[in-house]
Amino acid sequence: MIAYKIIEAIANCFYVFLLMIFVRCLLTWFPGVNYNNPIIKALCAAVDLYLDLFRKFIPPLGMFDLSPMVACFVLIFIRKAVLYAAIFIMAAFGMLGN
Length: 98
Description:
The protein has one domain (about 1-75, about 85-90). Helices cover about 70% and strands about 0% of the residues. The protein is built from three helices and no strands. The longest helix has 26 residues, at about 1-25.
């Protein structure tokens, strides 16, 4: 039973980070956002660290930055791979019930 909770927690961590990327992208639409706010500063620091990996390789098309979309697809792929690996490992050790 605890193995299912661990797998669920892993999945939720990925969902939270995807939500953080979404909020970060929404913040760029509002020009009056105070980026000196500690919460927004922490959000931008965490998300931009990941997004900058994709911004190096994906140039903006005019005023559109497509790197968050590609970053989300990659994150979803990594999430699936990690979850399948966790299920496989826990099943191999007999931690998952029938």
